[in-house]
Structures are given as C-alpha cells and as structure tokens.
Amino acid sequence: MRKDVLEGVLRHIMNDIQPNYAAMAKQYNCDYRTVKRYYEAGTKGEVEQIKK
C-alpha cells in the first residue's frame, strides 16, 4: 500500500474535490490507475482492503 498516494487521495476526499488522476500520478511517480483505485476505495470506505 502506498501511504503517500493514500494521503493525497484522502486530502481530496475530505475536501470533496475530484482529483486529476494524471497530475497526481506524476506527483507520486505512479500510474494513474493506481491513484484512481485508491480514490474509489476511499470514497467507498474500503481503504483497508487495498492490497497490491
């Protein structure tokens, strides 16, 4: 689990802002699909279930 990506995504969730997945992916040096997966899990409350 990427804690840095999770923190960034949770910041967007708390502020009720839709993130730009590509920009966040560049910032955290990961794929945009990873950021999207964390965002969708965070909005559903399934953050603990994210594995790889």
UniProtKB/TrEMBL annotation:
<protein>
    <recommendedName>
        <fullName>IS21 family transposase</fullName>
    </recommendedName>
</protein>
